[in-house]
Design a protein that fits this description.
alpha/beta, 10 helices, seven-stranded mixed sheet, 36% helix, 2 domains, 15 strands, Aspartate Aminotransferase, domain 2, Aspartate Aminotransferase, domain 1
């Protein structure tokens, strides 16, 4: 397709989504013989460097292709892909019941709310234990088996405290969704687990950061980390049957990934370079906005230093409920959007525009406004940051519950 030279940030964003749509349409046409029933021998779908094999309804989906992670040394991995990040963590935790009779699962207080809900509602063999500054400061452990769940959506102080005080455990699960595939924090966790020969599973939603900000499609994964070449998870882990049970859970829950949702540019040198540059710009802008909000809104910041640096949250002077917070997020983006700023009310993060949405802190029970940081030019982002601060300082009182 032919595109005119962009004349504004809005043009760049629009063209990017148009190119993505054209790319997905091209893949759909190319793989038109590869149906859900896999009825034809001509069905040999691929997406860039990814190759797929499957039978009816993708229950046995086999994926060959590049890793979304950048491991070092002899570290290798076995990955099972799912239809979303929640499908990945759900399959893993439910499958763990087949190899763990009872266990304490230690989590950070601000771990992803839906993960906590999943454990409480459906993973009854796992007893939820909230960590504080040190693992032993949580509730007294009752099970001889310990599972530690690290979450990349935690505030920086919580995440760093967990890394400093991390103790030997039976199984380590790391939700890496908010970190880039080459994150130093991911490497730190992998190295820590390798030194102790600790079974490590990485779970991830690829919708956010791994699609260059356009949400190419719903995609999740469960990755079993191997610390030595030619030595599989089954050869060294006391949870050797867990990968097989995860695959079975994905099949029975209907959570298999869609081949069409694998971005075809993953693994290419240009993708890695652009992804690194893009994440660097987001992190740089995130630091700038955190400093500004700390000075301009000292009493209205909820959390401005998450470990991932992708977004921050603002609070009102009094508690908000969910519905009020939703309306406030929509009004903020709508009003500033009319002023010409690239900002949208969107329930996600990692876009080329700023995104506002409601947020709930499971640890404090408070609702707040989440501001997702884009990779805009710093001068434009500084202007938008100042406008957000002025709008929230002026209008947050209108959003307070009576």
């Amino acid at each position: 397709m032919t595109l005119a030279r962009p004349r504004s940030i809005a043009d760049v964003i629009r063209y990017k989504f148009q190119l993505t749509a054209a790319l997905k349409a091209e893949r759909a046409f190319h793989d038109r013989a590869a149906t859900e029933a896999a009825w034809t021998d001509l069905a040999q779908p691929d997406s860039g460097l990814f190759k797929f094999r499957y039978d009816y309804q993708r229950a046995d989906l086999d994926v060959r292709g590049p890793s979304f992670y950048e491991f070092s040394g002899d570290t290798t991995s076995e990955t099972v892909y799912t239809a979303s990040g929640m499908a990945a963590i759900s399959a893993l935790l439910l499958a763990s019941a087949q190899v763990i009779a009872k266990a304490d699962i230690l989590i950070l207080p601000s771990s992803y709310g839906e993960t906590q809900e999943l454990i409480k509602s459906h993973a009854r063999h796992l007893r939820l234990v909230a960590l504080k500054r040190q693992p032993e400061e949580g509730e007294a452990l009752k099970s001889s088996t310990r599972v530690l769940l690290l979450d990349s959506s935690a505030p920086a102080v919580e995440f760093e405290a967990a890394l400093r005080t991390i103790r030997p455990t039976d199984l380590l699960i790391f939700d890496t969704t908010c970190f880039s595939g080459n994150s130093i924090r991911i490497r730190r966790v992998v190295n820590w687990a390798r030194e102790r020969r600790l079974p490590l599973v990485l779970v991830r939603s690829h919708t956010k950061l791994d699609s260059l900000g356009v949400e190419y499609g719903r995609l999740g994964s469960v990755t079993f980390v191997n610390y030595e070449k030619n030595v599989s998870w089954a050869d060294r882990s006391k949870f050797s049957d867990l990968p097989g049970h995860v695959r079975s859970a994905i099949r029975l829950l209907g959570g298999a990934a869609l081949p069409a949702h694998f971005p075809p540019y993953i693994g290419l040198p240009a993708y890695r370079e652009l992804s690194h540059r893009r994440l660097a710009a987001i992190l740089r802008n995130g630091r700038r906005s955190s400093r500004y909000f700390r000075a301009a809104l000292p009493d209205l910041t909820e959390e401005i230093r998450f470990a991932h640096g992708l977004y921050l949250t603002l609070k009102a002077s009094r508690r908000l409920d969910e519905a009020t917070t939703r309306r406030a997020a929509a009004q903020l983006s709508e009003n500033l959007g009319r002023m010409g700023f690239p900002i949208r009310h969107a329930g996600s993060f990692g876009f080329d525009f700023a995104a506002t949405e409601w947020s709930h802190n499971a640890a404090t029970g408070r609702y707040s406004i989440r501001i997702s940081v884009p990779d805009l030019p710093s001068r434009l982002w500084d202007d938008l940051t100042a406008s957000i601060a002025r709008w929230w300082s002026t209008h947050q009182g209108e959003c307070v519950m009576a």
